[in-house]
Amino acid sequence: MAWRPGLRCCHVALLGVLGCAFVGIRTHRGGAPKVRRAAVLPIGPFCPFASPQFINLCTDPAERRELEATVGDMNCLAETEPDGAALAELGARLRKADGPWRGRLLRMRHANDFQTKELYEFLEAHLETFGVRIFDVERFAAWQADTLQAMSRGRPPPPTPPKSQHLLGLLDSFRFGQAQQLTADFALATEGAAPVVEDERSALQADHIALIGLGQAYGSFDAAGKLIFLDKMADIAERWKVYLERLRLMGEAAPFPEAQGLLSRLGLEPAEANGLVGEAHARLRGKAGQSEA
Questions:
Q1: Residues of the signal sequence (predicted)?
Q2: For the segment 6-36, what is each residue's pLDDT rounded down to a tens digit?
Q3: Is the pTM of this model over 0.85?
Q4: CA distances from 264 to 107, 133, 227, 256 (A)
Q5: How far apart are CA 252 and CA 5, in angstroms?
Q6: What is the DSSP string of 56-92?
Q7: Helix %, strand %, coil % of the chain (to 5)
Q8: At what angle do helices 61-75 and 164-176 cross, to 10 degrees?
Q9: For the chain, which residues make up each domain, given as ranges?
């Protein structure tokens, strides 16, 4: 089915970090000033056009319920005196309940699809701003299960990983993250605009969607092909930057309203988000170069 303005694309499991400042003032047609955020480029997790092969971290409802119940039972341990068998059973449940999202991470790591790889590298770059990596979150999840099973045998728990308090919050985000649905409302954004502006947007949208389709086979490209693809994506990003700046000068809002909520949930300013997407692409360039060596 062809993409059309307003189509919702389920895209990315979020890290539950809050806080993002507002910047800039916009004047509506009615003349009333309205606080607005600077635009984020519709690239990476902020892209409303999703690849059919895209993989994210979102758990399905049944998996989520099992995780919530298991983690809830673990959090109640301080109020009870479970025996060894109960601790062993809880440790096994926790390890099993963590399996689906950890399995998705593994699939993301080895996916062919560009958007999936892009999201993985974005998550890695974002976590590194907190001094941790995806591996640390996975290791902390395993440590929780290992601790329960050690306690069940009357053994000392394994050493607590560094930054455990911080990792606990991040782990909850990996376990319970939900998809953010993104839309693009170009009809409102370009209302009253000259036809050339709509033509520019239409061509850019078509080129972007076509590149996302091509990116489904990104993992099978040789090193040169991957670098060419990344160059084309950089060109798409630059064209969006020019287009969104044109809308700003026209006094129009960016056509990606949900992206602002995603920024807030990630605790990022638009420039920081764009920088992390750029870092994700730089990582992919580096890996392409390594595969050539």
A1: 1-21
A2: 333 333 333 333 222 222 222 223 333 333 4
A3: no
A4: 27, 21, 32, 14
A5: 16
A6: --PPPHHHHHHHHHHHHHHHTGGGS---HHHHHHHHH
A7: 65, 5, 30
A8: 150
A9: 14-54+181-292, 61-109+125-176
